[in-house]
């Protein structure tokens, strides 16, 4: 355990095993048990040498190099909690994080990788997700890209410390990494408001693109460079926005006339975000009630040429909305 000798090795192994048991109990790996071995092998604590947790006066920094043993143990246990960890802050704003491991497991299973697949990850983060992919597929089959050179440099260090060397690229994730294309899969670990067309051109026909959008996870099957379509998964997903695409959301919505119960409902908030700019909150609420408060899986996205729209139940049905910019 780099920098700490062996004093916490047993605790690290025990905490990692408990995290694996917890994810397994959630059923996240039921469709692809092969990911269990990757999570059991990759040491998450090497990717979060420090992180921040909420405290009474903002954030508390937990650090693996603390001179106090109890503080180091608290850092290590926290590194293996099934929670997201804030890893970069600037003026109180979250810039980067390590995602919740069970959500990462769900996303990796949904990616549906096979031996020999080439994967592009958008948003390098700490490097932990790239390490999981590299453990499963091999270093040469994994590329990760991030706009921030500080993030990519620290991701390289973390990956090397854990024994992995996928290609880490500093660049605009919306453009993909064309020199490494074609890919079989693209996975984004940051929130977007639209699907970058460059990605479709860099994925083989029949390949998949998985990205967080509108507080959900959309899995698109690529037909060709101008066409992709797919449905949302059931999983709620809240990620740091992709730098370079702009922060989704815009002005706060006026929810007057919408019942308080609906305002606090995650599925209604999802519909609000997905239809922003097309339906006002009152119209969205009427539709939501009329259609039986639909789950995320009933919604989907189609990209065709220069058009991109979200839909309920049927891409050619009566309920379709252009994605908000």
Name the helix and strand elements from N-terminus to C-terminus, one letter apiece.
HHEEHEEHEHEHEEHEEEHHHEEE
Average per-residue pLDDT, rounded, comes to 92
Q: Tell me about the biggest sheet?
A: 10 strands, mixed
Amount of helix: 25-40%
Strand fraction equals: 25-35%
Q: What is the overall shape? A: globular
- Give the neighbour order of strands across the main sheet: 7-6-5-8-9-10-11-12-13-14
| Distance between the ends | 45 Å
Radius of gyration: 20 Å
Specify the number of helices: 10
Please characterize this protein's 3D structure.
The chain is of the alpha/beta class. Helix content is 31%, strand content 26%. The protein is built from 10 helices and 14 strands. The protein has helices at residues 9-26, 34-41, 69-79, 101-111, 128-137, 149-162, 197-201, 260-263, 266-274, 281-290; strands at 50-55, 58-63, 85-90, 93-98, 119-122, 142-146, 167-170, 183-188, 203-213, 216-224, 227-232, 299-304, 307-312, 320-322. The strands form 3 sheets. The chain has a 10-stranded mixed sheet with strand order 7-6-5-8-9-10-11-12-13-14. A two-stranded antiparallel ribbon has the order 1-2. It has a two-stranded antiparallel sheet with strand order 3-4. A hairpin with a 2-residue loop joins strand 1 (50-55) and strand 2 (58-63). Helix 2 (34-41) packs across helix 5 (128-137). The longest helix is centred in the first third of the chain and has 18 residues, at 9-26. It is globular and about 60 Å long. The model has no long low-confidence stretch (mean pLDDT 92).
């Amino acid at each position: 355990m780099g920098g700490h000798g062996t004093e916490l090795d047993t605790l690290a192994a025990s905490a990692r095993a408990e995290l694996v048991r917890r994810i397994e109990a959630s059923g996240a790996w039921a469709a692809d048990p092969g990911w269990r071995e990757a999570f059991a092998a990759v040491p998450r604590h090497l990717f979060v040498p420090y992180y921040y947790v909420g405290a009474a006066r903002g954030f508390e920094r937990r650090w693996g190099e603390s001179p106090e043993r109890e503080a180091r143990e608290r850092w290590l246990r926290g590194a293996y909690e099934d929670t997201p960890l804030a890893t970069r802050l600037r003026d109180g704003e979250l810039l980067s994080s390590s995602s919740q491991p069970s959500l990462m497991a769900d996303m990796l299973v949904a990616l549906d990788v096979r031996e020999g697949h080439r994967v592009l990850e958008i948003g390098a983060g700490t490097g932990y997700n790239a390490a999981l992919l590299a453990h499963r597929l091999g270093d040469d089959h994994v590329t990760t890209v991030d706009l921030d050179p500080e993030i990519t440099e620290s991701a390289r260090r973390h990956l090397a410390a854990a024994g992995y060397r996928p290609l880490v690229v500093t660049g605009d994730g919306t453009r993909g990494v064309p020199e490494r294309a074609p890919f079989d899969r693209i996975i984004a670990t940051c929130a977007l408001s639209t699907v970058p067309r460059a990605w479709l051109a860099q994925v083989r026909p029949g390949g998949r693109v998985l990205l967080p959008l509108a507080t959900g996870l959309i899995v698109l099957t690529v037909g060709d460079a101008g066409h992709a379509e797919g449905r949302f998964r059931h999983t709620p997903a809240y990620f740091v926005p992709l730098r370079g695409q702009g922060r989704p959301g815009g002005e706060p919505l006026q929810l007057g006339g919408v019942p308080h119960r609906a305002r606090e409902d995650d599925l209604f908030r999802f519909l609000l975000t997905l239809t922003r700019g097309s339906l006002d909150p009152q119209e969205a609420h009427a539709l939501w009630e009329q259609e039986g408060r639909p789950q995320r899986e009933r919604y989907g996205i189609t990209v065709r040429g220069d058009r991109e729209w979200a839909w309920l139940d049927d891409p050619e049905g009566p309920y379709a909305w252009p994605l908000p910019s």
